Amino acid sequence: MEQSAQNYFSPENRVAPLGIVAMNGAEELSDKIEAHLVRWARRAGMEVDSFRIGCSCPRFSSGDGKGILESSVRGYDLYFVVDVGNYSCTYKYFGQENHMSPDDHFQDLKRLIQAAMGKAHRLTVVMPLLYGGRQHRRSYRESLDCAFALQELQNMGVDNVVTFDAHDPRVQNAVPLMSFDNLMPSYQVLKTMFRAFPDISTGREDFMIVSPDEGALNRNMYYASVLGVELGMFYKRRDYSRVVDGRNPIVAHEYLGSDVAGKDVFVSDDIISSGESMLDIAYNLKERKARRIFTYATYAIFTNGLEAFDKAYQEGVIDGVFGSNLTYRREELKNRPWFYEVDVSKYIAYFISALNHDMSVSAMIDPHEKIKALLERRRLELSKEAGAQLSF
């Protein structure tokens, strides 16, 4: 893949000049993406230092704002990188410091799209954490935030939306004529886990996948299929006679599946919000004599703090929590001994490069062959280690 990236940057094959618009709060991820793109472009013989299009969204003291693009974008293939989950961004509102919400980030995105004034060749929004994604369906008299937001982007002239691990990818049905790519960093997760824990064995007798609920079953089925291990699952038993914080409270997590005793267990979900459900599952698995428990969430946001996970780690209940760099992570989280960051910037760079040259992205969306190669390399490494120990 690294070699083929050189072909992505031949000027004659590009759809249009590439421009990256890094929005407020998404600079860290954008810097990493751009570093890959610049390196590949230089290898292909292009003299380029940056693909960045400067931007800003200043605000008046009343809270009103505007979007500004700091250079011409006429004829560009523009990629807006936005992190709607970055609550560390602030602005002054009537003299008070106000933290940006997902609504604020999405509004700024629309401002910058307006600032392009329809002059760009093509508009793509890279929004890993999908705005309104958790409000993906209607129960009772409720809004459909995500579907309406996608329709807004389509009406503004956006051609592509690239997201990761959407809570329910069926929201794309709201915009059937707009490109919607829902990517899964499965290969990057496994690669990071094997590096962090080189002694993990993925044999059927040693390793198992467990889905935290029925909603996460598909992504965990994929891991179980490519690794060739068994799959178990929990389902949430709820009290439908009450509503707490807009939903029926969970009474218990019930387990379905084969015995986890003596096995390492991997649990994958799209988001760790408060983390209560993930911890309940971890304690439940530990009571069932699971050996080690590894959890992964594409968006590890920990809205209720980190203390409960610190306690679980100290008690030996959780051995590792993996989370991507696709949304804002506090420094306290990055420094925790139980947290391992999954870098997805190279994957996004490949995807942007392929789109910029109108190349097929099928292999990137389905990384099955890369995972097979990773597992084969790991099998050879483990067999060499076992041989070395026997000879010793």
Question: What is this structure's SSE topology?
Answer:
Elements: E1 18-22, H1 27-43, E2 55-56, E3 68-69, E4 77-81, E5 90-93, E6 96-99, H2 102-115, E7 122-126, H3 145-155, E8 160-164, E9 179-183, H4 186-196, E10 207-211, H5 217-227, E11 230-238, E12 250-256, E13 264-272, H6 276-287, E14 293-300, H7 307-314, E15 320-324, H8 331-334, E16 339-342, H9 345-356, H10 362-365, H11 368-391
Parallel strand pairs: 1-4, 4-7, 7-8, 8-9, 10-11, 10-13, 13-14, 14-15, 15-16
Antiparallel strand pairs: 2-3, 5-6, 11-12
Helix pairs in contact: 1-9, 4-11
Write up what this structure looks like:
This protein is an alpha/beta fold. It folds into two domains: 4-183 and 346-359, Rossmann fold (3-Layer(aba) Sandwich); 186-343 and 371-378, 3-Layer(aba) Sandwich (Rossmann fold). It is 33% helix and 21% strand. It has eleven helices and 16 strands. It has helices at 27-43, 102-115, 145-155, 186-196, 217-227, 276-287, 307-314, 331-334, 345-356, 362-365, 368-391, and strands at residues 18-22, 55-56, 68-69, 77-81, 90-93, 96-99, 122-126, 160-164, 179-183, 207-211, 230-238, 250-256, 264-272, 293-300, 320-324, 339-342. The strands form four sheets. Strands 12-11-10-13-14-15-16 form a seven-stranded mixed β-sheet, with helices on both faces. It has a five-stranded parallel β-sheet with strand order 1-4-7-8-9, with helices on one face. A two-stranded antiparallel sheet has the order 2-3. α1 packs across α9 (345-356) and α4 (186-196) runs parallel beside α11 (368-391). It is globular, with a radius of gyration of 22 Å. It starts with 17 loop residues before the first strand and ends with a helix. The model is unreliable at 1-6 (pLDDT under 50).
